[in-house]
Design a protein that fits this description.
22 helices; Rossmann fold; alpha/beta; five-stranded parallel β-sheet; six-stranded mixed β-sheet; globular
């Protein structure tokens, strides 16, 4: 299977090249030229398989230039060896929320307590093998823009990996105190972290500019290096996310909660659109999905787009208590548009150019019709998010983080608008609540919260009894290694300095 570029129909690369390169030279994203189709017999086979075996099957159908042994080795290293607590990387928790019974897909049992671990424990193994396959002996320089969770997960995944260097940029005032502490205390000799004065979109735009800057790429080339990405613009980041949607459905089948072929709804809190795009791809491959429910916070650019077909980032930016979703430019939407236009790279390229030049574009009637058929979109503000955390805890004693709460609130909106009570729902839970301990504690017991995030972790545990994950507990007293800050315009200089490379 080869991969095509969303902005240039003539560009075609192998899976290994797509993963190693991360992004096309013109800024376009790589997508598979075809998608495998899974029928009921495949779902039956996957039902009794382990998570690693499910991953092997799905990865193998897309990464056809990897051997079965290579894929098995990558999957075992990512999801085995106790990397994920509890023995199942992506378990389902059945929760009575007070407004509905839902199946929460807990994707936060990995080493950084966020769903990004599901892909970023695998990507380093895929990337290093991809570099060998394209016969590159260059050091891969991984640049990451993060709204909070990707940064730490990427740092942890690439820590100490031979032939790689990684640098993470995060918005100085746009992540939680716990997310910042996780990143700035990161261990490893090949890692670097830098805050920027701006928001996530500034960081993401800056990284994309560096990726496509000819002079910078030439400087790296002279020094035996090449850029790659750990953001979900890299197909090697997005592909592993397809696995857990199939896994969740198979677990529902195994538990007798759905029959093979019965449709489910999938509710996803998303900012950059990668997580819900993976669910769309799973549906495209044959996963029985009735509706994809896209949940946004106050930065509701996706809600407006999916309802009206108008994408307009020219709006107020909100710093919310669900910071991983504080995004106004959703990169992975480009891949969806490419699919819904019948792979019209010229049309997609035109819309992306409009977005870059004016901050706005509007899709045609056919694409809007397709969007409305596939998606329900909703949003909520911080007050509603906090109300949901408190309400779910009161009804079930389940403690949800601020992003999962956005998904639950929007699912509640969906039920009220559609009365679709009969379709089982999988709600994606993207982070452990202790990553946002202060906001969660304020929602559960406002009077007990103090200014210290680590103290609020202890208090939240005392009140709820929810176990504190070891990676969070170990942060207490850990020295800060990275305190660097730059303006968005100086990100390129920061990268060159980190690599000790002259332009």
């Amino acid at each position: 299977m080869n991969y095509k570029c969303t902005r240039n129909e003539t560009e075609q690369v192998s899976a290994a090249q797509a993963i190693a390169q991360g992004i096309s030279s013109d800024g376009g994203l790589f997508v598979p030229e075809t998608f495998p189709k899974y029928d009921a017999s495949v779902l039956d086979a996957l039902q009794n398989a382990s998570y690693i075996e499910r991953a092997e099957r799905i990865l193998g159908d897309f990464l056809t230039d990897f051997t079965a042994e290579e894929i098995r080795d990558c999957a075992e290293k990512a999801y085995g060896d106790g990397k994920f607590s509890g023995g199942h990387p992506a378990p389902l928790a059945s929760v009575q929320t007070g407004f509905a019974q839902v199946n929460l897909l807990e994707l936060w049992h990995g080493p950084t307590c966020a769903f990004k671990d599901m892909a970023l424990q695998l990507l380093p193994h895929l990337l290093t093998r991809s570099l060998r396959k394209i016969q590159s002996d260059k050091t891969a320089v991984i640049l990451v823009a993060t709204s909070g969770d990707t940064g730490k997960a990427a740092l942890e995944g690439f820590k100490g990996v031979d032939g790689t260097r990684i640098m993470v940029f995060y918005p100085q005032n746009g992540v939680s105190a716990m997310q910042k502490l996780q990143m700035t205390t990161q261990e490893g000799g090949n890692v670097a972290v830098c805050a920027i004065e701006g928001n996530f979109d500034d960081a993401q735009t800056g990284v994309k500019k560096i990726f496509t800057d000819a002079e910078t790429k030439a400087a790296l080339e002279r020094n035996g290096m090449m850029f790659s990405s750990a953001n979900s613009i890299n197909w090697g980041r997005l592909l592993p996310q397809i696995v857990y949607y199939f896994s969740a459905y198979c677990d529902l089948m195994k538990a007798g909660k759905v029959q093979n072929g019965q449709e489910i709804n999938i509710v996803v809190p998303t900012g950059n659109f990668g997580n819900i795009l993976a669910a769309y791809y799973a549906k495209k491959m044959g996963l029985p999905v009735h509706k994809l429910i896209c949940a946004s916070n106050a930065n509701n650019v996706l809600t407006e787009f999916l309802r009206t077909g108008v994408y307009d980032r020219n709006r107020r930016f909100f710093a919310t208590i669900s910071p991983s979703m504080d995004i106004l430019v959703s990169s992975n939407l480009e891949r969806l548009l490419y699919d819904l236009t019948g792979r019209d790279s010229a049309k997609v390229s035109g819309w992306m150019q409009q977005l870059a030049e004016t901050g706005r574009y509007e899709v045609d009637a056919a694409v809007l019709h397709a969007l409305r058929g596939l998606f329900y979109a909703g949003f909520c503000d911080d007050t509603q998010t906090a109300e949901t955390i408190g309400g779910v805890y009161q009804s079930s004693h389940y403690v949800s983080d601020t992003h999962t709460a956005v998904a639950l609130r929007v699912y509640q909106q969906y039920l009220a608008e559609t009365e679709d009570q009969g379709t089982p729902a999988v709600v994606v839970s993207t982070a452990n609540p202790y990553k946002f301990a202060t906001s969660v504690l304020l929602a559960v017991d406002h009077a007990k919260a103090v200014d210290s995030d680590l103290e609020n972790v202890r208090t939240l545990h005392e009140i709820t009894g929810a176990p504190i994950p070891q990676p969070i507990a170990e942060l207490a007293g850990k020295p800060v290694r990275f305190a660097q800050t730059c303006i968005a315009g100086d990100m390129k200089r920061s990268v060159l300095e980190m690599l000790d490379v002259e332009e």
